[in-house]
Amino acid sequence: MGTVEAASAQEQTLAQFDRVIALNLRCAMQCTQALIPGMTDAGFGRIVSIASRAALGKTLRSAYAASKAGLIGLSRVWALELGRLGITSNVIGPGPIATELFKQANPADSPRTKQILDNIPVGRMGEPEDVAAAVAFFMREDSAFVTGQVLYVCGGAGVGGVAT
Q: What pTM did the predictor assign?
């Protein structure tokens, strides 16, 4: 779950900013803190956070991009702090994925949405299954040597620096 409060830097209210940070960042910290003791006791754990390609920058997404970039920072710290306990921490950075959140934030008839779709090198929107496959990789027991990483599942949209 996540939330977007699409607005320009000039129009973003602090109330909107606080809501986005609370849901997209604070909840991740709260959940992780609740699960660390059990993972520590087991000597094994996988933390996979869902950030966004928007963490690299996207217009009208000040609060959202900040929260997702913050999630990447948290995950990298957790990788450093928890690795010796058998716990890895990685991040998925989805690009345009056909979810309800994407559809709400990017109306189908918007020229901006068309521009997003036109800038995906693989020629299609991502599907939730694309993200699930990346999460499954990080969750595997034999992925124990991969930690502190961000995997952008974006159809190549982030390669050329195009803000999708």
A: 0.90
pLDDT tens, position by position, 59-77: 889 999 999 999 999 999 9
Looking at residue 1, its pLDDT comes to 56
Residue in 6, 45, 58, 64 annotated catalytic: 64
Instruction: Judge residue 7's burial from the number of C-beta atoms within 10 Å of its C-beta, 0-12 exposed, 13-18 middle, 19 or more buried.
Output: middle
Q: Domain extents for the chain?
A: 14-153
Cα–Cα dist 81/145, whole Å: 15
Enumerate the H helices of the chain as residue ranges.
14-21, 27-42, 62-82, 100-105, 111-118, 128-139
- CATH 3.40.50.720 for the 14-153 domain, yes or no: yes
What type of residue sits at position 152?
Y
Give CA–CA dist 16/18, Å, rounded. Answer: 5
52 vs 49: CA distance, rounded Å: 10
Query: At a CB cut-off of 8 Å and minimum separation 6, what does 151 contact?
Result: 90, 91, 92, 93, 134, 137, 138
Tell me if 89 sits within 8 A of 76, measured CB to CB.
yes
Question: What distance in Å separates the CA atoms of residue 64 and residue 1, rounded to the nearest whole number?
Answer: 13
The reply to whether 152 belongs to the active site is no
